[in-house]
Every structure is written in structure tokens, then in C-alpha cells.
Write a structure and sequence with these properties.
Blueprint lengths: L4 E2 L2 E2 L7 H18 L1 H17 L28 H21 L12 H16 L12 E3 L5 H11 L4 H5 L35 H18 L10 E6 L6 H4 L2 H6 L5 E7 L14 H12 L2 E5 L4 H7 L5 H8 L2 H7 L4 H9 L3 H6 L5 H5 L8 H12 L6 E6 L23 H11 L5 H6 L13 H13 L22 H4 L6 E2 L1 H14 L7 E5 L12 H4 L1 E2 L19 E2 L5 E2 L4 H12 L1 H4 L5 E7 L4 H13 L4 E6 L18 H6 L4 E4 L4 H16 L7 E5 L5 E2 L9 H6 L1 E5 L7 E6 L4 H15 L2 E7 L2 H17 L9 H6 L6 E4 L18 E4 L10 H8 L3 H14 L5 H11 L18
Parallel strand pairs: 3-4, 4-5, 5-7, 6-7, 9-12, 9-13, 10-11, 13-14, 14-16, 15-16, 19-20, 19-21, 21-22
Antiparallel strand pairs: 1-2, 8-17, 18-20
Helix pairs in contact: 1-2, 3-4, 3-5, 3-18, 3-20, 4-17, 7-24, 24-26, 30-34, 34-35
Length: about 900
């Protein structure tokens, strides 16, 4: 029979000593018969543990018992003042809950989340008081990803430290009505509080992904010798419901593969999602343990508080552990809302041995048996073990109760939606926290009072002393970077010369410039090329021998293409981040690199190149988070447009990424047609993002794999027009009807052909315009209108596109390889008749000529559209439109069946 592997344990292997095996099996059978299954199971687990200690290759188990990973006898000494820390937690809990509740008083009702922080308070406070290193720490400080819904607790701590005022707390989720800086945003948003928050985390699932790649980028900086990050750690606080997002678990293999022991996940397992249990019939902690353990992580479970230790020590038969193992999460959630008598009957009462265990305990004591995530000693032991783990990332799975200490909220399904506490709720909450707030103070005010013991109180002094010892208050965002010395004009000269008789795609022009940047003595080491398994597609394999692909393990094999000049080379000091088939991971790397100026004080230039269709459409939320994090860098949408890559079919055909880019206020999109335009745009990007007055923007540039004849830069080039979005590239000569033809990107050759055909075949003169950015033209126009709205007493301004086209004669016909909605962004501000051709609809697989005829965006279609516009204006006869339509057959893609495909592989 073939070998069978069951749960990682071999069941069919050759037995080289059957007699010895029989002795072991007989001994095991005897133990089961004499001591029982639970004893036998315990011995087996100890044997497996000893086997690993002796480096015997025994497969790992998928999960362990539903108890704490660290037994009491292995817990370290707790170095803090237990009573002071308990009071600090009480102050923060109160202020966090009051802040959200007051924000939902009648007439305001702006929402918020009370219960998440209440469940996680001990997790955060142990970190703040003992582990999280601040920006002034000699090692550079840790990076803390705080769970978005836990923000009220972080604000409440900052209030006690004196970093936020009571007035700011009272204006939670009121960011503009009281003036700038006088309110607080709902979640961790660096763009809204750039001196406070460092990482945006409320995009569900992105926290885990971005934290992994942040830890990885820390190692990248270290291995490349840019910064010593050996003493920095990344902590990511996550919810157990949040772990259901695919992105949360999608990159955990990378963290283990690259041995990121500078990374700690803390998963707050309060067993609840937004509207119910995470795993009602299952056990989320066990499920996550199996997933992380299987991926190669160090897993630490913090399930039970110290009051359970005595009961577990008396569990000689394993009956209690078995009961813990078999109880589903939905039932545990019910226990958190019931009294001790219910728990005694339903949890302990099913077995006489269990009931006997707690017969000395009152119902109240049973009800208060705590979960591990609320026991700061258990949490401290877990954090301490995580920081001492080598060679593996660590995940701490801490069991808590959502809404803990607030009787009205604890463990209830509706907890997440409960935003307001009644006065009776607040009084019970106060009593449970032992706070010196009177009933009169609560009853008298519309908003319950915040509590601060005074800046000289021992609790406040303790907090400040602990933070000072650890390197300062957190969260805190600091920019200690210096502007880069940018390359001069010489590096852009090649792109401005044109391609002569050769045809060059803008993708290739861009890569050529990137190579020159990487050779620059000032910024070369700062460039971070990033690609999702597509470097060869974009012609970047020439960088492999010199820049090399980053791999912390180096290259421990002989590459299959080692004899080639451009062979694949990996190195621990490699510069190129090759992310495999993971656009999400690539975006996380771009975010980490683009924000290194603030997280590390080091200016880095991410250069993420991807199929344009797999950028904004696929990872738009990541781009939004990148913008929120105030990251900078270049996103390159290669093989852009609906028809340039049509051999690949519908999924690869991008006809709309500029529209998605337009929704992100931080993204500056350009769609250059020519290499010389590209040179000015790239130079502008460097200056705007990395110069003396650095802006927190992201440059998105769409380039094409279709080679065209690149014109040399004109002597009178309009650089301002290129950067603002529109410049004139051709002036038609002749009398008679005149039109304005506009195109962007790969459409400019069609515009040029259409202008020639109009002149030679129809006697129409055309001026031609290159639109380098429809988005920037539209933004300028919207901004202009807004200025006029806000300045009614001053002379009205006009938009840039209106100014440029004010004196242009004839209708304006625009064409692009995108859907019509992209050029139509500027329709309102184009003087006169504006006609737009675009690639609306789904893409498909065919040649470029066939696709362009199908979408009616080729030169012939531009000619017919132009003649129609002129006919509508009475400048040509309608017979000419009919004649042109019949001649070119723009409604019939079969008319171009014999037209050869022009350069550029799909």
C-alpha cells in the first residue's frame, strides 16, 4: 500500500525493529488501560515536546489544548506596580467610554465604538507600560498598528498624559465644526492627525498585511546598510473577526519564511464580530493557532486568567481541560453574560468531578473567573516571551470579553452597535472601576464628566516615567528626514532626444530612466523597485545582475539561467523587491518604503510597476491607506489602456484606472504620450515628493508597451502645460474648416494620423493637443470653481483648460484608450462643441487595429467624428460624413482583419 500521511503523522513506514516497536506499543496500551486516556495523552504530548528538544523530526501538531501556552511556573516576574496600573486602566476605560457616549448625545449622534477598547485595555496597557519603545529610544522605536475601533482608548491615554485636552475628547468625531485641531477623527488617520497617528488601520484586513511588510522592510533597510533596525519591533493589534479578511492571513507565510522575529501580532479574541459570534459552533483561537502554527509562526495563547491556575492544577484527570476543549465559542459568549449559578450548572455541572472542583467557590467567584486577555500578568508573560523569540514571528491569541467592565455591553451580540450609555449604566461602570465620581456629577451634566486625577497624581507620574524610560509617548509620528539631493537635467537628456528611426514604448523609456536614477550617487540607493513577478515583462531583467533581487537568505542555488548575461540573481543586500504574484503585498511594500521618511527618518523612493488593470482596481483600498499614511512614491501602471494588451483578454484590459485614481485626493495621475513628456513628469515627481518642500502625494503614471516613434523635445516645449495636463504639440496649416484634436497616452499616434487624413483627404486643418492628465485638468477646474464660490467679491478666475482653448477655432474632439468618462471629466470647461471617443465596455482578445475599430477610437473613427462635428456646425456638408463613414467602415471590425499588428508583444 502507498504511504499515507494523516495530520502530518506517518502511518505507513518500514519497521526496522518490529519487536522493539511492539514493546513500545504494549507499554502504551498498558498505560491507557491502567492510567486512562487522559494520562496517556499527556505523556504523548511530553514525548513530542522532548522529541523536538532533541531535534527529532516530528511533525508539529496543528493545535494544542485550550489553555495558556505559558504555564504559571514559567511566568516571569511582573516588574510593574500592579495597583497603580489597575487604576490607570480604570481611568482610561472610563474616559474612552464617556468620550464615545457623549459623542452620541441627542442632536449629535456621530457614532463610535465603546466595546472594542474595553476588551483590549490590558493588552494595550501592558505594552505601553513595559514594551512599546518610543521614537526617542536609542534603537529607533517600535511601530505600533493599533486596532481602528480601539482608538477611543488611545485618545483617553493621551489625555491623561497631557497630549490631548478634555475639550478635544468632548469633540470626538467632530473635526471641522469647531475649527482645525479642536476635534478628533474616529480612527487612526495619519493624514488627519499627522503628529499623532502613524499607521491607518481601520481598513479591515490591511493592518496584518501592512504590518508584515513593514517588518520585512525594516529588515530590508538593515540588510542593505541604510539603517540599523535591529532593535525595532512591529506590533499589530487585530480583532479575531478581522482575521476573516483574506488579507489578514494572506501573507503570514512570508513572515515565517523570512524569519521576521521583529514582528508580533496581538489578536484580541473577544469571540465577537460586528453582529454575532466569530465562530459560534467552533473555536476561533484554536482555528487561528492551527493556521499560524502551520505557517511557521510562534503561537502564544492567553486563554485563562490566574484564578483558573488553581483549578487546572487540580485537574489530575484532565476533565477540566477536556471541557474547555469541547465547549464552543458561542457557549463561552453566553457564559460571559450569565451568572455564576448558570456557569456552575452548565459548565461544571455536567461531570461530578468538575462540580467538585468548584464546590468551595461562591457563585460570584465563579462568575468572575477571568479570561486571560484581562490578566496583565498573563499578558505580560506573553509579550515577554514574544520579544525573546528568535527566528519566528509571534502571534499572541488573547481571549477577552467584548465590552468588559461595562455591564450593559459585556458579551452581547449588539455590543458593537451600542454607542451610548445611560446614566444608570455609567454609575454601574463607575462602581466597577472604583472611580471617585459622585452620582451628582453624573446626573447634573448632559455629558458625563471625564476623569483626570491631576498631573501630579502618582498614576500620571507613573505613566510618564514608564513612557520616558521607553523612549517617549506613543502613538507619535515624526519626520526626521532630510531632503534628497536630486539629479539634475542631464539624467533626463536621453528621453528628450527622441527615438529617431526606432520605435520605443513609453514603458521602455520609463525603465531606461529608472536605471539612470539607480546609478545616481545621491538617490540611487534610495530607489526601491517593486514588482509582482513581472520584472521581465516590463523589461527590467537587465537590473538583475547589478541591483539583484532582495532575499534575506541570499541565493542558495544555481539559477537555471545562470549562463545568461541577464540571469536571475538574489542577494541579502538586493535592491529589487520581487513580491511574487501578490499585488497586495507589492502595495504594502510601496507603503512601507514610501513612509520610511517618517517611520525611519530615511527618504526612500518606491517604484512599484504593475499591469495597470491590477493596480487601482485590485488594490484601491491599499492605495487609499498608502495615502492616509502620508506615503510618497511612484505607482507605474504599465501596459495601460483598453486596447494595448488585447491579446490577454478582458481581465487585463484597463479602460478606467484614471477614474479610480481620480477618487484618491493624494494621487497625481499622468498619461504621457511621449518620452520627453515622461522625463518632465518624472522629474516633477521627484521634486514634489523628495525636494525641499516635499508634498505627501503619490504619482500614478500610466505607460504603454506599444512602441511608437518618439519625437524629440521641441525647442519651445511647454513644460508648464505638460505638468498641468495639456499642451499643444501641432499647429495645422491651411484655410477652411479647423478642428482641435486632443489625445492622451497611446492615442496620440491616432490623433496625428487623423490630422493627416483630415488635411490630405478632406481639406480640414487640425491643431493637435497632448493631454498628459485629464485628472489634473479636472481638478484644476473644480478648484477654480470652488475659489470663485468662496470669493464672490473678487473677479472670477477661469480654469487652465478653458484658458488654453479659449481662442482655439472649431470643435474639440478628444480620444483616449480609456472609457469616455475619463476625458469627459473636463467637458464642462471646454469652450464650444466637445466630442469624446473612448473604449467603453469590456475588453477582449484580438489585435490592436481590430480592438480600436471595434471601440471606434482609431484614426478613421476620429476623422468621422470630426467631420460629423463640423457638419453639425454647418462647416462641411453632411454628405462628407456619409462618404467617410462608408469609406472607413468604422462600424465593422472585419474591415481591419488584414491590418498587421504593430510591435509590442502582448
Amino acid at each position: 500500500m502507498p504511504s499515507v500521511i494523516h495530520e502530518g503523522l506517518p502511518t505507513q513506514l518500514p519497521d526496522i525493529d518490529p519487536d522493539e516497536t511492539a514493546d513500545w506499543l504494549d507499554s502504551f496500551d498498558g498505560m491507557v488501560d491502567e492510567r486512562g486516556r487522559d494520562r496517556a495523552r499527556y505523556v504523548m504530548l511530553r514525548l513530542l515536546e522532548r522529541a523536538r528538544e532533541k531535534q527529532v523530526g516530528v511533525p508539529a501538531l496543528r493545535s494544542t489544548d485550550y489553555i495558556n501556552s505559558i504555564p504559571p511556573e514559567r511566568e516571569p516576574w511582573f516588574p510593574g506596580d500592579e495597583e497603580i496600573e489597575r487604576r490607570i486602566r480604570a481611568f482610561i476605560r472610563w474616559n474612552a467610554a464617556v468620550m464615545v457616549s457623549s459623542a452620541n448625545r441627542k442632536g449629535l449622534e456621530v457614532g463610535g465604538h465603546i466595546a472594542t477598547y474595553q476588551s483590549a485595555a490590558s493588552l494595550y496597557e501592558v505594552g505601553f507600560n513595559h514594551f512599546f519603545r518610543g521614537k526617542d529610544h536609542p534603537g529607533g522605536g517600535d511601530q505600533i498598528y493599533i486596532q481602528g475601533h480601539g482608538s477611543p482608548g488611545i485618545y483617553a491615554r493621551a489625555f491623561l498624559e497631557g497630549r490631548l485636552t478634555e475639550q478635544q475628547l468632548s469633540r470626538f468625531r467632530q473635526e471641522v465644526q469647531h475649527g482645525p485641531g479642536n476635534g478628533l477623527p474616529s480612527y487612526p488617520h495619519p493624514r488627519l492627525m499627522p503628529d499623532f497617528w502613524e499607521f491607518p488601520t481601520v481598513s479591515m484586513g490591511l493592518t496584518a498585511l501592512n504590518a508584515i511588510y513593514q517588518a520585512r522592510f525594516n529588515r530590508y533597510l538593515h540588510n542593505r546598510g541604510i539603517k540599523d533596525t535591529a532593535d525595532q519591533r512591529v506590533w499589530a493589534f487585530l480583532g479575531d473577526g478581522e482575521m476573516g479578511e483574506p488579507e489578514s492571513l494572506g501573507a503570514i507565510g512570508l513572515a515565517a519564511r523570512e524569519e521576521l522575529d521583529n514582528l508580533v501580532f496581538v489578536v484580541n479574541c473577544n469571540l465577537q464580530q460586528l453582529d454575532g459570534p466569530v465562530r459560534g459552533n467552533g473555536k476561533i483561537i484554536q482555528e487561528l493557532e492551527a493556521q499560524f502554527r502551520g505557517a511557521g509562526w510562534n503561537v502564544i495563547k492567553v486563554v485563562w486568567g490566574r484564578e483558573w491556575d488553581e483549578l487546572l492544577a487540580r485537574d489530575v484527570d484532565g476533565v477540566l481541560v477536556n471541557r474547555m476543549n469541547n465547549t464552543p465559542d458561542g457557549q463561552y459568549q453566553t457564559y460571559s453574560t450569565e451568572g455564576g449559578d448558570y456557569i456552575r450548572d452548565h459548565f461544571f455541572g455536567i461531570d461530578p468531578r468538575l462540580r467538585q472542583m468548584v464546590e468551595h467557590m461562591t457563585d460570584s467567584q465563579i462568575e468572575k473567573l477571568p479570561r486571560g486577555g484581562h490578566d496583565y500578568r498573563k499578558v505580560y508573560a506573553a509579550f515577554d516571551a514574544a520579544t525573546k523569540t528568535s527566528g519566528q514571528p509571534t502571534v499572541i491569541l488573547a481571549k477577552t470579553i467584548k465590552g468588559w467592565t461595562i455591564d450593559a455591553l459585556e458579551g452581547k451580540n449588539a455590543t458593537h452597535q451600542m454607542k451610548k450609555l445611560t446614566k444608570d449604566d455609567l454609575k454601574k461602570f463607575r462602581d466597577r472601576l472604583y472611580l471617585p465620581i459622585s452620582d451628582k456629577e453624573i446626573d447634573a451634566a448632559e455629558i458625563a464628566p471625564f476623569f483626570h486625577p491631576g498631573k501630579d497624581a502618582p498614576e500620571i507620574q507613573y505613566m510618564l516615567e514608564r513612557r520616558a524610560a521607553l523612549g517617549g509617548s506613543l502613538p507619535r509620528r515624526v519626520d526626521r528626514s532630510s531632503p534628497l539631493k536630486l539629479p539634475g537635467d542631464a539624467v533626463y537628456a536621453d528621453l528628450k532626444q527622441g527615438s529617431g528611426k526606432n520605435k520605443v514604448a513609453t514603458t521602455m523609456a520609463l525603465v531606461r530612466l529608472l536605471r539612470d536614477w539607480m546609478k545616481d550617487p545621491e538617490i540611487g540607493d534610495r530607489v526601491v523597485p517593486i514588482a509582482p513577478d513581472e520584472y521581465r515583462t516590463f523589461g527590467m531583467d537587465s537590473m538583475f545582475p547589478s541591483a539583484k533581487v532582495y532575499n534575506p537568505g541570499g541565493q542558495q542555488y544555481e539559477s537555471v539561467d545562470r549562463k545568461l548575461l541577464l540571469s536571475y540573481k538574489e542577494s541579502a543586500q538586493g535592491q529589487m523587491l520581487h513580491e511574487g504574484i501578490s499585488e497586495a503585498g507589492s502595495m504594502a511594500s510601496a507603503t512601507a518604503a514610501g513612509s520610511a521618511y517618517s517611520t525611519h527618518g530615511e527618504q526612500m523612493i518606491p517604484f512599484y510597476i504593475f499591469y495597470s488593470m491590477f493596480g487601482f482596481q485590485r488594490t484601491g483600498d491599499s492605495v487609499w491607506a498608502m495615502a492616509d499614511q502620508l506615503a510618497r512614491g511612484f505607482l507605474i501602471g504599465a501596459t495601460a489602456g483598453r486596447t494595448t494588451l488585447t491579446g490577454e483578454g478582458l481581465q487585463h484590459a484597463d479602460g478606467h484606472s484614471p477614474l479610480i485614481a481620480a477618487t484618491n485626493p493624494a494621487v497625481v495621475h499622468y498619461d504621457p504620450a511621449y518620452a520627453y513628456e515622461l522625463s518632465h513628469i518624472m522629474q516633477s515627481g521627484l521634486e514634489r515628493m523628495y525636494g525641499a518642500d516635499a508634498e505627501n502625494v503619490i504619482f500614478y503614471i500610466t505607460v504603454y508597451n506599444e512602441p511608437i516613434s518618439q519625437p524629440a523635445e521641441p525647442g519651445d516645449v511647454d513644460v508648464d502645460g505638460i505638468l498641468r495636463g495639456l499642451h499643444q504639440v501641432g499647429t495645422g496649416e491651411g484655410d477652411g474648416p479647423r478642428v482641435q484634436l486632443m489625445g492622451s497616452g497611446v492615442a496620440m499616434p491616432w490623433v496625428d494620423d487623423a490630422a493627416r487624413m483630415l488635411r490630405e483627404e478632406w481639406g480640414v486643418t487640425a491643431d493637435t493637443w497632448s493631454v498628459t492628465s485629464w485628472n489634473e485638468l479636472a481638478r484644476d477646474a473644480v478648484s477654480t470653481e470652488e475659489w470663485n464660490l468662496l470669493h464672490p467679491d473678487q473677479e472670477a478666475r477661469t480654469s487652465y483648460v478653458t484658458d488654453r482653448l479659449r481662442n482655439a477655432r472649431g470643435p474639440v474632439v478628444a480620444v483616449s484608450d480609456y472609457m469616455r468618462a475619463v476625458p469627459l471629466q473636463i467637458a464642462r470647461w471646454v469652450p464650444g462643441d466637445f466630442r469624446v471617443l473612448g473604449a467603453d465596455g469590456f475588453g477582449f482578445a484580438d489585435t490592436r487595429p481590430a480592438a480600436r475599430r471595434y471601440f471606434r477610437i482609431d484614426a478613421q473613427s476620429v476623422v468621422v467624428q470630426t467631420l460629423q462635428a463640423l457638419a453639425d456646425a454647418g462647416e462641411v456638408s453632411r454628405d462628407k460624413v456619409t462618404e467617410a463613414f462608408a469609406r472607413y467602415r468604422i462600424d465593422d471590425p472585419t474591415a481591419v482583419a488584414d491590418v498587421a499588428q504593430e510591435g509590442g508583444d502582448a
